[in-house]
Amino acid sequence: MIISWCIPALFGYTRVEVVDSVTGEPVPYVAVSVKGMKHGYLTNDRGQIDISGPRGIDSLRLDLSVLGYDKKSVVLPVDAPYALVKMSGSGIELNEVVVKKKRDKYSKKDNPAVAFARKVRQGDSITDPRRNEHYNYNKFERIVLGLNKFQGDTSRNALKKKFGFLNEYVDTSEVSGEPVLIFSVKEKLSEIHYRREPRNEKIYITGIRQEGLDDFIDQNSMQTFLEDVLREVDLYDNDINILHNRFVSPLSRIAPDFYKFFLTDTVDIGGEQCVELSFTPHNRAMFGFTGHIYVPEADTTMFVKRVEMRLPPGINLNFIENLYLSQTYERASDGSRLKTNDDMTVELSVIPGMQGLYVRRNTRYDNHNFNPSDKPELFGMLGKEVVADGATLRDSAYWDQHTLIKPTHNEQRVSELVKRMRSVKLYYWGEKFIKYMSVGYVGTSMHDNKFDIGPLNSFISGNDVEGLRLRFGGMTTANLSPNWFSRGYVAYGTKDHNLKYRAELEYSFIKKDYHSREFPIHSIMVSHLYDVDQIGQHYMFTNMDNMFLSLKRMKNTLMTYHRVTDLKYTLELRNNFSVSASVQHHRQEATDFVPFVNGYGERFSHYDMTCGTVELRYAPGEKFYQNRTNRFPINLDAPVFMLSHTYGPDPRGGNNFGINKTELSVQKRVWFSAFGYTDIIVKGGHLWGATPFPQLFTPNANLSYTIQPESFALMNPLEFVADSYYSWDLTYWANGAIFNYIPGFKRLKLREVFCFRGYAGELSDTNNPVYSPWLLKFPEQCNTTGMNWKPYMEVSAGVDNLFRCLRVDYVWRLSYLNRPDIDKSGLRIALHFTF
Question: Stretch 401-421: mean pLDDT, rounded?
């Protein structure tokens, strides 16, 4: 073995190049382990790897191994920019396959490593513990958040003086060896109870403990988000679902086409000699892993003893610098694989050049057994998770007894760190500002807020009818009453000089922790509203007076004033099924821009309608982030079914109207493994009688330059109406499936997005004021038309992940191109943060 040094040209890591000692050809896919670091490396197809060693050491010890060559160890100075390692061929024979020292071009055909990987996959059913009638075990999970590669010795004297104490709380990462400042620890104890027939699995949570600097964020939502992003990995699944993406598993059905496999070594794992199966993606920009699977030699069940994986360099992911995953298994007496450890570490860099983040999800398992559950009543409860009474109130003695992972010294001192940080006024007020901006509400007292002011993003906005719109609102909290809640707002337009308002009073049958919208809701609410109604522009996931929607592509005066009094009952179940029933009285008031005139020429200042609505919603497995006003899906993997019916008697006379309509919607995200996914939304509805035009089915027109879900970017408000309709919204996110193969584009980490949406329906004579003159006529400015089932369609093609946060689409209108005052194409943008 010969080592050569070159002039420093790289920074922060050592580039190691491995070549054949005889031919000088690169040796690809060499397994490289670094002393003092848990994770290993794998050289690329050019025999190269970039290694960054732990801080505080002078040298790196590398152990290199690959079938066909003698194992080598080498010690390098930690600051060496480059090392050339020459390995000598050995001609090892494994399972009657001779590995020659000269490397042939990779091929999966007749490749013993590919055959070995297929056998490992086939062993799933043999070693799966869930092939038993019952399976139970205990699980302990700790998630820690911290600042990665933390440098406490800042040169700014003022900051050093204020925050110099942070050095006392710095740990060293067990995975990377880097200094880490832990600022949040979240722990959960649970029992898993599985039954095969009828199939059911319940998670019984017995303990929850959380503390850290992030406690101003809704902790239930934060826990849900972290658990969703850092999901448990099942190697035998076709897709590995983490970081809100799908990665191809090395044991997937398509793995032989996606990965290169190599039998690289035999290694002692827990006193047992194991074959090391190494793998790496053909295209490292795609969503896959590099790593190793260890299987005991001559094991006909292909029992997996250990797994080590990491993300390859160059992968088309945002914010992720490194991800390491390791799992260990023990064999039960019946041959089942029992997971004992699942450890995932993620190192993030949100803003290049700024302080990075460290996230570790460390999970331990014990008390595996195949006996009938000692809590059979769990299988009759709703929802997959059941939280034990007092789970959040466990004392330190309980945690000391049940914790399966001993915390580090500084993980135990997080609460102390929080107190010291908040004693510094600079941090205290900075945290307050971030909290107000993220939550959207400002408390009215330093502690135990009884009333919060907000939402902040709706204080100032504008439109063509109101001019500058000023709004002030707020809500009571559970510190005033855990069952009784109220919220509301007042708004004023500088152009129409009208005062608008909304007030609600709600009684929750479930005591809330802070606000009334917390899941699950079981309440009865009465509300009254007086405000503008933007006909044909009902945004799905934001307020109509969001300041970012004020800039529009055309003038819009299609607004009325409406008064709505509503009595509503809501029941949400923990299996994500909900039902709501309401009785409403509507008064829609005409404006100069939208007069109410019927086919006989009679003019009305307003019309009235009294109706009731029943809505059913089912979203099995849905996960969402909850804020004070809305819920935002953490992912869209769960299907969502919604069915509603509204009925109000039809007096058929004057300015009183009825309604009778049914509407159904279904949405689902469909994944194509590492090649992206499609979001599908399909809706349909039917009106069973006559009703005024503001109550007809009207597709949502988006007049802003932003991309808004479930709306049409080039349609005008009230351009189309229908009393029967269906619509579709298809968005394909390709995750770089094209750009990853284009030289130059791969480094930019751009991603493709394509949309196709449409709306089709008809307007019957019953709801056409031309044939039913007692109905209100459509506003002349709208050029409203019935569709007669000819669909309106839009398509768009866009580039996502510009600057890691921006999506830019170009949209084309495909039908109804000869109508007046329309946009046929245009550019639209949106902020889009994703991994």
Answer: 90
CA atoms within 13 A on the CB side of 645: 4
Query: Which of 696, 718, 738 has the alpha carbon at shortest distance from 779?
Result: 718
Which run of H or E residues covers position 263?
strand 259-269
Task: List the single range of 38-47, 453-462, 719-728, 816-825 with lowest mean pLDDT.
Answer: 38-47
φ, ψ at 138 (rounded to 5°): -100, 150
Q: What is the pTM of this model?
A: 0.82
Q: What is the predicted pLDDT for the residue at 431?
A: 86
Number of other residues whose CB lies within 10 A of the CB of residue 173: 22
Are the CB atoms for 48 and 113 separated by under 8 Å? Answer: no
**Structural tokens at position 282:** 């053909």
Which pLDDT band, with edges at 50, 70 and 90, does 545 fall under?
Answer: low
Q: Please, what's the b/e burial string for 789-799 (b: 16 or more CB within 10 A of its CB; e: otherwise)?
A: eebbbbbbebb
For residue 68, give the nearest of 88, 85, 87, 90 by alpha carbon: 90
Task: Note whether 214 and 223 are within 8 A (CB).
Answer: no
- DSSP code of residue 778: P
CB 382 within 8 A of CB 573: yes
**For all residues of the chain together, what is the average pLDDT?**
87
3-state helix, strand, coil in the chain (%, to 5): 15, 45, 40
Residue among 374, 346, 426 nearest 156 (CA): 426
> Is the pLDDT at 327 greater than 90, yes or no?
yes
Q: How far apart are CA 652 and CA 813, in angstroms?
A: 39
Residue among 764, 827, 830 at smallest CA distance from 796: 827
User: Could you tell me what percent of the chain has a pLDDT over 90?
Assistant: 55
- Would you tell me how many other CB atoms lie within 10 Å of the CB of residue 149? 19
Residue 816: other Cβ atoms inside 10 A: 18
Distance CA 674, CA 286 (A): 7
Q: Tokens in use for 18? A: 């491995």
Measured distance CA(188)–CA(598) in Å, rounded: 63
Asked if residue 696 lies in contact with residue 717, where contact means CB atoms within 8 angstroms, the answer is: no
Residue 152 pLDDT greater than 80, yes or no: no
State both tokens at 215: 């406690």
DSSP state of 47: S
- pLDDT, tens only, 627-657: 888 888 888 899 999 999 999 998 765 668 9
Q: Taking the mean position of all CA atoms in its chain, how far away is CA 757?
A: 23
Return the pLDDT at 102: 42
Alpha-helical (H) ranges within 440-585 are none
Contact 752, 734 (CB under 8 A): yes
- Contacts for 480 with CB less than 8 Å, ≥ 6 apart: 450, 451
Main-chain dihedrals φ then ψ at residue 289, nearest 5 degrees: -130, 160
Q: Look at residue 546 in the predicted model and tell me its pLDDT.
A: 57
Token output for 761: 């329906």
Amino acid at 801: N
Q: pLDDT band for position 702 (50/70/90)?
A: confident
pLDDT digits (tens, 9 = 90+) for 366-393: 999 999 999 999 999 998 999 999 999 9
Tokens standing for 811? Answer: 């949209």
Contact status, residue 51 vs residue 75, Cβ threshold 8 Å = no
783 within 8 A of 819, measured Cβ to Cβ: yes
Query: What pLDDT was estimated at residue 264?
Result: 85
Q: Is 728 exposed, middle or buried (0-12, 13-18, 19+ CB in 10 A)?
A: middle
Nearest C-alpha neighbor of 701 from the set 588, 560, 540: 540
Is residue 9 pLDDT above 60, yes or no? no
Phi then psi dihedrals of residue 399, to 5 deg: -70, -40
